[in-house]
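Methods — Computational structure assignment.
A single polypeptide chain was analysed. Its primary sequence is given first, followed by the predicted tertiary structure written as structure tokens.
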Amino acid sequence: MGGASAGIGRAVAIELAALGAHVTLMARTESALRDAVAQLDHSMGQQHQYLVVDFRDGQGLSEAVSGLLARQPVHILVNNTGGPPGGPITEASPEAFLSTYHNHLICNQLLAQLVLPGMKSAGYGRIVNIISTSVKEPLDNLGVSNTTRWAVAGWAKTWANEVARWGITVNNVLPGFTRTGRLSEIVEKRAATSSQTVEMVEEMFKNAVPARRFAEPREIAAAVAFLASPAAGYINGINLPVDGGRTKSL
């Protein structure tokens, strides 16, 4: 479980643990990972653990996950990484694209290749990528993110087509406005560059959602958990928006 120390990643870890999974959390900050592991349900005898990794270091990530796989297989991989800073695409540097592409698509590829042999051997695997509704509709002032999310969606669909024969599915969850630190940053930046208050920006965002509210991280986690379950065995290669109806495209 990537990006598991906070926000959606932590919520997914909590949900999977509550359903009986043995969860391995990954993030950069060990103290936050320790706190997150302490929140997980152990009532079914699970043995949860964490890996301190930095997705900017592909070699270190590969070594850490390879060490984990030497001890145990992984049947569910949830790819989740913090988004890049916002801003118009016309002002984005090539370096911003390269680093974001690496942290999202390249690391997804590395992790999926590492866990694939164990999933094939088990005849069961679930890869769930937490992306964004920008896969359906680009979001204003998130140029680098929009571009990279589409690349990840194309990557996931291609993987889904190739690995389904082994009982492995690959799907994407597309969160809408979700009450996380990332959303707070976006709201605060919008307020700082306009004449609006934070409260006014939040109200504007909520009014763009038919449900008239933000999602809670646990609601995104519920969708991830379903796609990771045996019940979702014939759902493969899809983009699932969890956005309160905000996305206008089908």
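Note: Helices lie at 7-18, 30-39, 58-71, 94-122, 143-163, 181-192, 198-207, 217-227.
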